[in-house]
């Protein structure tokens, strides 16, 4: 039986009435997205239509999921809230802290030893507060969610941007920061700006070397890394129905790379089959009874332009395999044009490593199709010329593909199976010789490929493709190889052409596993003690951030004016810093060390206005904090794109940064800043960015009358005695202004639960 079946039953029982109310309130047919959102309103039945892209709306998600790196801070915050138990079903998944180095067995053992303090903390907190705990080795959070928890028509939040994977099972699943998770676990409404809607109509059917991965690689090329910001992508059409459930998950997963709030598919036979295959026939039976409510209305799909803010159409029958990169996931190349692009751009053609798996491409179908390509290499006398690694998404998948012989095939090809964890995808990859910084190429079936993302080497050119394309190129050892047209030479000197991959959507003998890695919480956690050593370098109990002082902010120092792309990886790096995710003071030593200083084109090198000397960003900010001086960070477009990384907001707040002023924000990061009591501001006129000088003292005026829709004024006091002043915008509603005044959203939670 599925987890939380009673909760799912209640959602489905309420669905018809909630949707009927929404249809009446909106006065029109509904998209699937609207059905799910309006069915989860905190207020109950909808009484009015919300304005897309403008209205802030309170929702009641059905569940919360947290990965181990972000769960630490989320749960440290929750411990301050004063609740004895989480208000909604919640889980913790230990997947981010396992470093990939040698192979699954050795790496998992090392992780359990190295991270014992953190794992023990997470296990005990989970036990105390009624949270399900998935042990190290159980799998990657998003794959486990798809296998165990996602259900059509549901709504969940997760402390990772790729929580959206659950959209493959018809669920609205949204990546958030830990403060948002804390709200929901505390039983409070969760606030979201009502998203815009992008419809993606899929026609035709995949064939040949083309896979579901190529759909999202194509979409990323169309929308770019910020084209989905503030929007939900809803996929529909005959092509959507033809895709496997896990293929749908792959597409939704990488929607995070275009900034989308989430992505979703409507319920169909493929989803029902997947539910049944993963021991959730009870959920499929319940979903079948309300199936009409688990997809958009027919009128919507007949005339999508009238119901979506933007419509994209892709013919799957004509879609080419794609390869995206380097250094950005939206640089999309059809395979037929990629070899020429490699040559024209002087990218390293020699392929050093091919990596498959991760949360976005580690399904049984993915592994079986990649194995069919690998088997050809073994059978036809081809030797893989690149290193090759496999990262299963969960222990259930790993156990099943081993049972069915796929791992043995990879072994014969020279492949190395890594732990069921994130590893190389998030910088947890102890890659040999990466520290030399040599120019090289890798190709992965992962989702994100920013510079230094995988191995810390800024000269690693990382490309993204489907697992089968990755496998073919790893066999060739050459980025310019096209398996659709090109030949390889085997050990007998024969010319060999690879056949089209084949695989199974689901295992014919069903999934199997000996120990999935789940630990249920104690029925009564009141006597469970959560211990945090006061001298720990990994964990630190939190103190409340100070409340707003009630005045305008004057005399702020410019900490850094960031030039160009600044993702959450630039603001708070992962990799070796992951071990400090539960210790705010220690991890704050990575604050903005990857950001490029506009004034000298250097990273981690800014002017200390108190001394006139240059030094690291965190040290400079600590000097300002020690002197009781506030500061401001200035940034470029789409500031904070990437992950849900809450530390990217908490670190500047902790060190005394008062405001972040940018040309535009990525959604999650802007919310995270607001939650922590920061000022998240945007230039009313983007050209004002050019007015900010290195030695500026800055005033923010208008806070005593801070109100929704009312701009603030920024005054620049230049070192030459001149001044500039201009308007800056914000998106704070009244509730969010109260977060600012209280010092953080958590401070308000504590106040409300005490009263």
Comma- or semicolon-separated keywords:
globular, seven-stranded mixed beta barrel, alpha/beta, 30 strands, Aconitase, domain 3, 25 helices, Aconitase, domain 4, 755 residues
Structure description:
The strands form eight sheets. A seven-stranded mixed β-barrel has the order 22-25-26-27-30-29-28. The chain has a six-stranded mixed beta sheet with strand order 6-5-2-3-4-21, sandwiched between helices. Strands 16-15-14-17-18 form a five-stranded parallel beta sheet, covered by helices on one side. It has three domains: 311 residues, Aconitase, domain 3 (2-Layer Sandwich); 175 residues, Aconitase, domain 3; 202 residues, Alpha-Beta Barrel (Aconitase, domain 4). The protein is built from 25 helices and 30 strands. Helix 1 packs across helix 2 and helix 1 runs parallel beside helix 12. It is globular. Helix content is 32%, strand content 18%. The mean pLDDT is 96. It is an alpha/beta fold and 755 residues long.
Task: Provide a short characterization of the protein structure.
The chain is an alpha/beta fold and 755 residues long. The protein is built from 25 helices and 30 strands.
Examine the secondary-structure arrangement and name the CATH architecture of the largest domain: 2-Layer Sandwich
Shape: globular
Using the coordinates shown, work out and report the CATH topology of the largest domain: Aconitase, domain 3
> Distance between termini?
40 Å
Structural class of the secondary structure composition? alpha/beta
CATH class of the largest domain: Alpha Beta
Please identify which CATH superfamily of the largest domain we are dealing with. Aconitase, domain 3
Unreliable stretches covering 5 or more consecutive residues: none
| Count of alpha and pi helical runs | 25
What percentage of amino acids are in beta strands?
15-25%
- Count of DSSP strands: 30
């Amino acid at each position: 039986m599925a987890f939380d079946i009673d909760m799912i039953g209640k959602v489905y029982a309420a669905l018809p009435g909630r949707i009927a109310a929404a249809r009446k309130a909106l006065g029109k047919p509904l998209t699937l997205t609207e059905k799910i959102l309006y069915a989860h309103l905190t207020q109950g039945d909808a009484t009015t239509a919300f304005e897309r892209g403008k209205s802030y709306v309170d929702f009641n998600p059905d569940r919360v999921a947290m990965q181990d790196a972000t769960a630490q801070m989320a749960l440290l915050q929750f411990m301050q809230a004063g609740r004895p138990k989480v208000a909604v079903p919640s889980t913790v998944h230990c997947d981010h802290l396992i470093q990939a180095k040698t192979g699954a067995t050795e790496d998992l053992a090392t992780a359990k030893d190295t991270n014992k303090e953190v794992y023990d903390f997470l296990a005990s907190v989970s036990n105390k507060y009624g949270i399900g705990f998935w042990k190290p080795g159980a799998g990657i959070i998003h794959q486990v969610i798809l296998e165990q928890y996602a259900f059509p028509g549901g709504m969940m939040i997760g402390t990772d941007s790729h929580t959206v994977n659950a959209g493959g099972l018809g669920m609205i699943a949204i990546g958030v920061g830990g403060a948002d998770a804390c709200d929901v676990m505390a039983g409070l409404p969760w606030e979201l700006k009502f998203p815009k809607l992008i419809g993606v109509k899929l026609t035709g059917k995949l064939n040949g070397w083309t896979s579901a991965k190529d759909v999202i690689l194509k979409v990323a090329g169309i929308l770019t890394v910020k084209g989905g910001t503030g929007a939900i992508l809803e996929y529909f059409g005959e092509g959507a129905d033809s895709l496997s459930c896990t293929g749908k998950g792959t597409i939704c997963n990488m929607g995070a790379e275009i900034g989308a709030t989430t992505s979703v598919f409507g319920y169909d036979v493929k989803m029902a089959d997947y539910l049944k295959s993963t021991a959730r026939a009870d959920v499929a039976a319940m979903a079948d009874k309300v199936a009409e409510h688990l997809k958009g209305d027919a009128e919507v799909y007949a005339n999508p332009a009238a119901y979506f803010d933007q419509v994209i159409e892709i013919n799957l029958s004509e879609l080419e395999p794609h390869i995206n990169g380097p250094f950005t996931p939206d640089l999309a190349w059809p395979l037929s044009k990629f070899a020429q692009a490699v040559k024209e751009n002087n990218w390293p053609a020699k392929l050093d490593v091919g990596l498959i798996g991760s949360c976005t491409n580690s399904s049984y179908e993915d592994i079986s199709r990649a194995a069919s390509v690998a088997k050809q290499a073994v059978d036809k006398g081809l030797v893989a010329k690149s290193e090759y690694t496999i990262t299963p998404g969960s222990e259930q998948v790993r156990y099943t593909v081993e049972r069915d012989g796929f791992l043995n095939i990879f072994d014969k090809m020279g492949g190395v199976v890594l732990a069921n964890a994130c590893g190389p995808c998030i910088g947890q990859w102890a890659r040999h010789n990466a520290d030399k910084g040599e120019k090289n190429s890798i190709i992965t079936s992962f989702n994100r490929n920013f510079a230094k993302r995988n191995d810390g080497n800024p000269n690693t050119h990382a490309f993204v493709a489907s697992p089968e394309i990755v496998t073919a190129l790893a066999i060739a050892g050459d980025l310019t190889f096209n398996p659709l047209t090109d030949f390889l030479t085997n050990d007998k000197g024969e010319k060999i052409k690879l056949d089209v991959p084949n695989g199974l959507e689901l295992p014919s003998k069903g999934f199997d596993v000996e120990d999935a890695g789940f630990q249920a919480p104690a029925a009564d956690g009141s006597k469970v003690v959560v211990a945090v050593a006061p001298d720990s370098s990994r964990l630190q109990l939190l103190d409340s951030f100070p409340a707003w002082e009630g005045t305008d902010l004057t005399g702020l120092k410019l900490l850094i004016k960031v030039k160009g792309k600044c993702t959450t990886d630039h603001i708070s790096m992962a990799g070796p810093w992951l071990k400090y995710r539960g210790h705010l003071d220690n991890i704050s030593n990575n604050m903005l060390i990857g950001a490029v200083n506009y004034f000298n084109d250097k990273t981690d090198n800014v002017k200390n206005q108190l001394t006139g000397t240059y030094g690291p960003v965190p040290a400079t900010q600590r000097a300002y904090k020690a002197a009781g001086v506030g500061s401001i960070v200035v940034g470029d477009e789409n500031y904070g794109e990437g992950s849900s990384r809450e530390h990217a907001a908490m670190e500047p707040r902790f060190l005394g940064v008062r405001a972040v002023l940018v040309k535009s924000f990525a959604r999650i990061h802007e919310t995270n800043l607001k939650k922590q009591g920061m000022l998240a501001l945007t230039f009313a006129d983007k050209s004002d960015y050019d007015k900010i000088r290195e030695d500026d003292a800055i005033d923010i005026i208008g806070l005593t009358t801070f109100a929704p829709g009312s701009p603030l004024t920024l005054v620049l006091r230049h070192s030459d005695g001149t001044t500039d002043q201009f308007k800056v915008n914000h998106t704070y509603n009244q509730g969010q202004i109260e977060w600012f005044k209280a010092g953080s959203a958590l401070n308000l939670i504590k106040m409300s639960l005490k009263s």
